[in-house]
Amino acid sequence: SLTERLSGVFKKLRGKGRLSEADIKAAMREVRMALLEADVNYKVAKDFCNQVSERAMGQEVMESLTPAQQVVKIVNEELTRLMGGDEPTQLHIKNKGQTVLMMCGLQGNGKTTHAAKLGKYYRKLGRRPLLVACDIYRPAAIDQLRIVGEQAEVPVFEMGTERPELIAQKAMAYAKDHGNDIVIIDTAGRLQIDEALMDELVRIKQTVEVDDTLLVVDAMAGQEAVNVAKTFNEKIGIDGVILTKTDGDTRGGAALSVLAVTGKPIYFQGIGEKLDDLEPFYPSRMAGRILGMGDVLSLIEKAQAVQDDKEAEEAAKRMMANKFDLNDMLAQFAQIKKMGGASALLSMLPGGNQIDPDALDEKALPHIEAIIYSMTPEERAKPSIINPKRKRRIAAGSGQTVEAVNKLLRQYEMMQKLMKQAKRNPKGFMRRFSGL
Ligand code: GDP
Ligand code: MG
C-alpha cells in the first residue's frame, strides 16, 4: 500500500544528520513509485514529486524536526494541497429558495445511498430536503430510494417511470409547495458510460437549475474513478465529487488525483453503508491517512505553537511511549485547553475517535483536575492502586462523586489501551512515528 511504501521511504531517511540533494532525489523516486502503485495518475505523481523536492531542497532544516520528519511534513502538506487544502469545500447550498443537487455516476457507486445520506445530513442541520426518484429503469430503484428515504426521515418524490426531466420539473413545484429547500435528485447509472445516460442527465440539467452536479464515485476504483470523473465532467459538467466506500479503500489513488485531473473538489466522503456514514472531505485527514499517521503532524504543529519545541517533543514522546500517567494527564490539560479543546485534540490522534470527547469535555476539565489534585502523588503515578476506599476519599476531597472518579479512571484506562493497541499493531502509527 501507499502507506507502507511511504513509511519504508521515510525509514531510509532515518538517522541522517542532514538531507542531501541525493537523499531527496532517492526518496522522491520511491515516493513516485509508491504513488503510481497506489493508482495515482502518472502526471499527478510526477508533478507532486517535483513540488516536494523543490520545497525540500530550498528549505533550511528546522531545528525541532529531524530531516526525515521535515520531508514527511512537506509531503503531508503537499498531499493536503493536492486534495484541496485545509478545509472541506462546501456545497453551493443557498439560504433562500430551492437548492438542487443532482447525483450522477455509474451503477453501484452509491448514488441512491448518498442521496439519502445527504438528505439526512441536511435534515439534521435543520433543512428540509426532498429526495427525487429519477432512476426509472428498474422498479427496485424507486423502492430503494423510498426505503432509504424513510430511514433518513426525508420525503421522497416519485412519478414511476415518467421521463426523468419531467419528474425533476414536477419535483421542483412540489418542493416549492411543501417548503422543501434542498432537492436531491437521484438518477440512473449504467455499468459503463454511454451516450443515452449522458443525454438523460443533460436533459435534466436543461430542465431544472442544478446548483451542484455531484459525481458519485467509488474510491476503490482508483485511477478508473478518475477517468470516469473526467468523462462526466466533459460530457455534462460536474461541480464536485462524492467519494464513496473510502472505508474499503486503502490506496488513496482516486482521492489524490481527482482534483488535479478534473479541477473539481471532493465534497464529501462515504465511510460506510449506514446513512450516518458520511463526512465532509478533509484533505488534511486524508493526507494523514495516506501517510498512516493520523493528523499527527498538525498535532505537533499546534503543540509547537503553545509550547517550546522541546517540551512538545517530550510530551509527544511520553504519550507515544505509553508512559503517561495521571500526572502527565493533568499536565496536559492546560495544553489541551490551548490546543482548542479535548475533542479537537482527540480528533487528531489515530483512533482518538474511539474516545468519548464528552468525557474529556472542556467543561469537565475543572472537575477532572479537581479529582486528580485530590489524589496522592503515588496514586497519580500508579492509578491501579486506587481501590474503592481511596475512591471515596478522593471523591470527598474533590467534591465529586465516586462515579465521576470511576469515569475519569475508565477514560484514562481507555487512553492507555489505545496507546498499547497502536503500539502492538506493527503497521500502526506509533511505530511509524517513533521510527522516523
Ligand atoms: P447506485 O447504484 O449508484 O445508486 O448505488 P447504491 O446507492 O445502490 O449503492 C451500491 C452499494 O454500495 C450498496 O450496497 C450500498 O450499501 C453500498 N455503499 C454505498 N456507499 C457506501 C460506502 O460509503 N461504504 C460502503 N461500505 N458501502 C457503500
Ligand atoms: Mg441507485
Automatic annotation (TrEMBL):
Binding-site residues, GTP: 105-112, 186-190, 244-247
UniProt xrefs under InterPro entries: AAA+_ATPase, P-loop_NTPase, Signal_recog_part_SRP54_M_sf, Signal_recog_particl_SRP54_hlx, Signal_recog_particle_SRP54_M, SRP, SRP54, SRP54_GTPase_dom
Localization, UniProt: Cytoplasm
Entry keyword Acetylation: no
Domain annotation SRP54-type proteins GTP-binding: ranges: 98-292
EC number(s) reported in the record: 3.6.5.4
Entry keyword set: Cytoplasm, GTP-binding, Hydrolase, Nucleotide-binding, Ribonucleoprotein, RNA-binding, Signal recognition particle
CDD domains assigned: SRP_G (cd18539)
Enzymatic class: hydrolase
Occurrences of domain AAA+ ATPase (ranges): 97-243
Chief place of localization: cytoplasm
Residue ranges of domain Signal recognition particle SRP54 helical bundle in the record: 1-83
HAMAP family: SRP54
Function of the molecule: Involved in targeting and insertion of nascent membrane proteins into the cytoplasmic membrane. Binds to the hydrophobic signal sequence of the ribosome-nascent chain (RNC) as it emerges from the ribosomes. The SRP-RNC complex is then targeted to the cytoplasmic membrane where it interacts with the SRP receptor FtsY.
Domains (record comment): Composed of three domains: the N-terminal N domain, which is responsible for interactions with the ribosome, the central G domain, which binds GTP, and the C-terminal M domain, which binds the RNA and the signal sequence of the RNC.
Family named by the database record: Belongs to the GTP-binding SRP family. SRP54 subfamily.
Subunit structure as annotated in this protein's UniProt entry: Part of the signal recognition particle protein translocation system, which is composed of SRP and FtsY.
Protein name: Signal recognition particle protein
Organism: Gemmiger gallinarum
Designated gene of the protein: ffh
